[in-house]
Fold this sequence. Notes:
With 97 residues, the chain is of the alpha+beta class.
Amino acid sequence: MVSAGSKNKKKWSKGKVQDKANNSVYFNAETLAKLEKEVPAYRLITPSVLVDRLRINGSLARRALRELEARGSIRLVSAHNSQLLYTRATAPVATEA
């Protein structure tokens, strides 16, 4: 009787290797200028969006969003657990009574 399993051994893959994100942990002048100029114009602003577009780390993105909100450049829409949702600051909508 011939063993069926001895012919070809299963070759296990090493798994997919994900590229390491080389995000900065400090603001340099270029990134800070981009934050102050472009971010208040975004419609949807979350820490994830800042991490993706500005190449900064998450804690820096959260601090930047808090700072922009304190200045009045952006407005908080929803804060659910750790996911903060902001939008651009627009003039308050006047409601007719």
